Amino acid sequence: MSKGTLRQLLLLTDGCSNSGEDPVAIAALAKEEGVTVNVIGIVNDGEMSEHGITEVEAIAKSGGGISQIVYARQLSQTVQMVTRKAMTQTIHGVVNREIAQILGEEKEMEDLEPEKRGQLMEVVDELGETLDLEVFILVDTSASMKNKLPMVQEALVDLSVSLRSRTGNNEFALYSFPGKRSDIEKLISWTPHFDSLAGAFKKMSTSGVTPTGPAIQEALRFIRNRMKKRGTDEDERFDLEEAGM
């Protein structure tokens, strides 16, 4: 089975953007380039506006990912669930495209006979454990996020630990937005795990603006450059012959 890489951008925010380009449009561009955009909206006692909730959902939908509105105290389990669910959703999408190419445009996994569908589900589960995973994490550091950052820190360490059981490689990068001199600010470059984020979170400074669109755009530029440096444009491609197709 050919090796592929699942690429995700995980956005953690507690409000709607108020500066720069439309984040929904930028998320659509990310999806076109093979990057799934997941968004978690963090609230304390229902403080997020209807507009903020709508934007969280729209960004994730446009970016082919998962959205979730969550109380800060539940953040850790939600980050893990969203990351894994998005991996499965991406793999499902690729498998369905392969099936459509083989059997015709109208066919999807659910249309197959039970035995073949079961075989493919096993393949999907296996790929979720064996494909390489890269997660570019963007943390909103607008002023209202200040008291939520300790829980964000804990959730990201827990995410790293929870994914160590996978046989595929995991890599994470952590950036905050807005940056002091640019749209995003690097806290931790690509690393296979987060042992401690205390030092990185001390570097974070909160701001009044939320330039979500420019932040996603800059994150996409970093991901694109990383792919070029590694000399790879491989997507989530894999062979379905092992599943008996």
Automatic annotation (TrEMBL):
InterPro entries: VWF_A, vWFA_dom_sf. Residues 1-91 form the VWFA domain. Pfam families: VWA_2 (PF13519). It comes from the Bacteria. SUPFAM superfamilies: vWA-like (SSF53300). PROSITE patterns: VWFA. This is Ca-activated chloride channel family protein.
